[in-house]
Design a protein that fits this description.
The complex is a heterodimer of chains A (147) and B (121). Helix content of chain A is 68%, strand content 3%. With 147 residues, chain A is mainly α. Chain A has one domain (30-143): 3 helical TM bundles of succinate and fumarate reductases (Up-down Bundle), CATH 1.20.1300. Chain B is an all-alpha fold and 121 residues long. In chain B, helix 1 packs across helix 3 and helix 3 packs antiparallel against helix 4 (93-119). Classes of the chains: A mainly alpha (147), B mainly alpha (121). The interface between A and B is medium-sized, with 22 and 23 residues.
């Protein structure tokens, strides 16, 4: 204990109150750290947009007539916003769901198998980031009618 | 679950966490299975998805009951997650409590709407 506290060791910085602009920007974010914060951010996005999700469920499923309104929102527009804006909102939800889903499976797998090595954390984090972005691009291309 | 450590009892907001931690994972598994089921039913439906195919997926009683359960699972899952966010970032108690109450209202309103849509189908 006395050796650890001896004067030879430089004092490590202590953060009592993290400043979002001064301190956070100096963090070296590993892939696992990105997955972690994006897991939280994607969850928050889906929470905020939950009424829009239920609106989509409602209009798409209630009747033929509402189904046409559902389609029109994305093809023509709604509430004064053009259709592509709503498609972008849907695309944001698609990414959020995919990332949250894949990162969640990663969590469950880690909990179940105690796979907690640095290598496993890094490789699965990279897979999570890549797969969610790739699938978002594929579904986004379909959403915007590229194929 | 909550052990009373005499006069030094540690009072925390998350009931020592284990129950909600487990609930979040159990509900996650349920929602993941539901996602795969829904995905399979959409992918294996014949022809382009129109209104009839889409509404048909949710018309069976067992699918309604399952979707209802998933909505409740989602409710609890999101509650645990959002409360974690408020507990991590919002320090003033009055503001955190207000946001937690708003979260509950928001979630109950959304769940009610979703269940209404489901059962008038």
């Amino acid at each position: 204990m006395t050796e650890l506290a001896s004067k030879q060791r430089p004092k490590r910085p202590e953060f009592r109150n993290i400043n979002a602009f001064k301190d956070l920007t100096t963090y070296r974010m590993t892939p696992a750290a990105w997955v972690s914060i994006l897991h939280r951010a994607s969850g928050a996005i889906m929470f905020v947009l939950m009424p829009f999700i239920i609106w989509m469920f409602d209009t798409s499923i209630s009747s033929e007539l509402s189904f046409e309104r559902f389609k029109a929102a994305f093809n023509i527009g709604m509430l004064g916003l053009p259709g592509f804006i709503w498609k972008l909102v849907a695309l944001a939800l698609i990414w959020a769901y995919l990332h949250h889903f894949i990162a969640g499976l990663r969590h469950l797998y880690m909990d179940a198998t105690h796979s907690l090595s640095n290598e496993f954390g890094k490789s699965t984090a990279l897979v999570t980031l890549a797969l969610s972005i790739l699938l978002t691009l594929v579904l986004g291309a379909k959403l915007f009618g590229l194929y | 679950m909550s052990v009373n450590y005499g006069s030094k009892r540690l009072v925390v907001g998350a009931h020592y966490g284990t129950r909600d931690w487990l609930a979040q994972r159990v509900t996650a598994v349920l929602m993941a299975l539901f996602t795969f089921l829904l995905l399979a039913r959409v992918l294996f439906s014949k022809g382009p998805i129109g209104y009839d195919q889409w509404a048909g997926i949710f018309s069976a009683q067992w699918m309604k009951v399952l979707t209802f359960t998933v909505i409740l699972a989602l409710l609890y899952h999101v509650w645990v997650g959002m409360r974690d966010i408020w507990m991590d970032y919002i320090k003033p108690v009055w503001l955190r409590l207000s946001l937690e109450v708003a979260t509950i209202v928001w979630l109950l309103a959304c769940a009610g709407w979703g269940i209404q849509v489901l059962w008038r189908l």
